[in-house]
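ARCHIVE CARD
SHELF: 3
SLOT: left
DATA:
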Amino acid sequence: MIKSINSLGSKVYGALTESKPHKKLCNYFVQNPAKAIANSTIASIVAKDGIGCAFYVYQSYNNEKIPEKRRKFVTALDATNGILMIGTQIAMALLMRKINQKAFQGLFGKVFDKGGKNLKMYIEQIRADQKAEKLSPVRKFLLEQGYEGIKKQAFDTFSFFTELAAATIFAKRILVPFMATPLANKLEKWMNKHSSKSDDAKVETDNDSNPSMKGADWNDAIPAAEADGTTNLLDIYRKNHTES
């Protein structure tokens, strides 16, 4: 049994690794590792929040332990929390991606200066190390490429942390709690408005479908039951229709 499961699993996994989407995804991670890791991290967080939102809303709406008069508000709060978490996290991550270049230049412009002062110091240090080790000097354009590689790695790391921080800290922990309660109140009013219309329509339909259950006839039957000393409402129903 275990061998059969292992064999089936290996075949499925093997087919998956050979599929075009999997190869395309692997190439994406190889070519853009920092961006791919940032996207996959935020996507996993958003997916988790989306699934959690659906479960929380369902549980709150059907949780009889919550008082009925508060149940809609709790449900609305869970719904707004989930929707805001998903929306604000994506929005803040994309916003940071737009401004990261300027932010990085503003914070680390002196480290990676355009004038080439730090690049010159970098090349001089490499040359000195090579001379001390009695190595042949590396061509300047290769050193410049290495310097640009260091700059790119620094920028990719900076972008990863800023996008993740903007999504999970600023959006999720600051913006969402600030916005959720007011929006939950509005959603609760909307739910109450529509549910009250639905309840009124249901009551009206029930009364129209059974004329004997209309307010006047039925309310008159209760005092009659008390006067006669009987509690058999079916007898009262028959008596009223016989007399009429």
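SLOT: right
DATA:
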Amino acid sequence: MPRLALAACAALLLLAGCPRQAVTTVAGTDDEVMDQVAAQLEELRTRTDATCKDFCSLKDKACGLSTQACAIAGKAPERADFQKKCVTSQEDCAKFNESCSACPR
């Protein structure tokens, strides 16, 4: 009888499994960091008062955020949402570069 109880407990443990633990760093989980990066890019993208000088000064920030988003996406290639955010962030970087390049020197 004790063997049956032990076998039943072992079976329950196997069926329950272990929940996947999200890796948390000082900055948070990859999901949290990606959300923060996407929010910062959205804030830059929706600025309506940006001048040429602003675009040139913000392009480094936008491209840095893009690099960060794509680094996270590279760690999780199976995550379509991360891949989409990487592509969107690269487009944002390119738009800021184009806007800055169009400014008179």
